[in-house]
Specification:
By secondary structure, the chain is α+β, with helices and mostly antiparallel strands. The chain has a single domain, classed as Phosphatase 2c, domain 1, CATH 3.60.40.10. 31% of the residues lie in helices and 26% in strands. It has 7 helices and 11 strands. The strands form 2 sheets. Strands 2, 3, 4, 5, 6 and 9 form a 6-stranded antiparallel β-sheet that branches. Helix 1 runs antiparallel to helix 2. The longest helix is centred in the middle third of the chain and has 23 residues. It starts with a strand and ends in a 7-residue tail after the last strand. Bound molecules: calcium ion. Calcium ion binds next to helix 5.
Amino acid sequence: MPPITSVSVTHTGLRRESNEDAFRERQDLGLYVVADGMGGHEAGEVASRLTVQVIEAFIDDTRNAELNQAWPFPYDTAHSLAANRLIAALRLANQRVASAIGADPELKGMATTAVAILLQPAGMAQVAHVGDSRAYQWREGKLRQLTDDHSWVGEQVRAGVLTDDDAQRHPWRNVVTRAISGGVDPEVDIKEVDLKAGDRLLICSDGLSSVVPPARLSELMTKPGDLAACAQSLINAANAVGGPDNITVILVEVDAAGDVA
Ligand code: CA
């Protein structure tokens, strides 16, 4: 694993009373997760926390695993073991959310997004997601979005029907088209990225990405300063435009001095 620095920050924002986002940072596993819960009466918090717990436990349990008959889901040999571990972890979280809802009717309707990074040796990373929490890769002053939002407005933008600006203001901007909801086994998107010394990965809830445009994110990530100051500046940027939602940010940096290859 390349030498890594990481930092995570969450903030309730300025309009919500509770924080339904959850996150986990496990440098020893190379695992970073953000989940954004939905559902009234604190159920959203239950869904997002349960999901990060299940993902963390599964990635921990499969540290030395191989893809074989004991794997909990049909696996895809076109993907690496790391990718299959992440996909299975998110699907397992969906099953656990279903069990939690089955055991407590008050939790009915709860759901969560999840975006997760799993670092691999040799400077590669797998990025998995369900929902509209995002991952970005920042390299030499340029920001690249790694995830397509599973949201109604995201689909309209990709179809060329709405612009990014329209999407940001649209009344249906919070409608997600895929979630970890305990329903049908969710399709998990997976992407493999290569990492170079100096690269930064950002994963965040839509409390950041739906209110701070990518150009501004890129500008803040390019400013000199340490990673913690950078993460705080992203939180501040979301709150500066009203902080309408919970904001969670994890930044992962491949140390510039490190030899990634
Ligand atoms: Ca949110």
